């Protein structure tokens, strides 16, 4: 397998979980890695330079990119990992809460990507890896808004890849399933939770908790990111881990009605 030469990597949301594991894996693969954290005084760890950035703030993103350029002179790889979760029925959240979720998970990706693209075009090369999810291509009860952000990232990434290939830039997706991180603990809670959904919401939440406990380690996802970042001719998307590969396979081959029944059964919803 032919790979590209490691260079300068920028990983958003690198203070914990998948982002931290990815930053470490890229550093071990030979990249000089800059990671971001919402905390203004995040300490550098394992050779990774940590910088503050709020992906919902244009000025914060611009300052981040300028700092990386001042220190390294270029950006060869962008890993858009920063994001937040939300568990609840679609009707459980106000429009304002939905907008806040999209501001991080979708428009945050757009802000950082837009800031990096002129640099990569001048270089004539670059790779952008966007962290999606299996929820970017399957339905997810009680994750409608979160899944919508990942569906948006899938469409954005595929279209952007076509637009950028002539500049020597590729955009790829990494799609994890359940991963053993603090994701569930850090989930945003619905701001107007309705009693009518309480029982089903709790059931789905319990299924998620158990699945995360037995899910892939963040390092499994990080290994997939390194592969997507370094292979010379990347695929459009990479399933990260055994469960993600299995879900991707089933989604493509199992009849829709059967997949629907299995999904409802897994989430303890009436079939």
From TrEMBL:
Keywords: Oxidoreductase. One of its GO terms (molecular function) is oxidoreductase activity. Pfam families: adh_short. The keyword Cell inner membrane does not apply. SUPFAM superfamilies: NAD(P)-binding Rossmann-fold domains. Coiled coil: none annotated. Residues 7-199 form the Ketoreductase domain. Belongs to the short-chain dehydrogenases/reductases (SDR) family. This is Short-chain dehydrogenase/reductase. It comes from Labrys okinawensis.
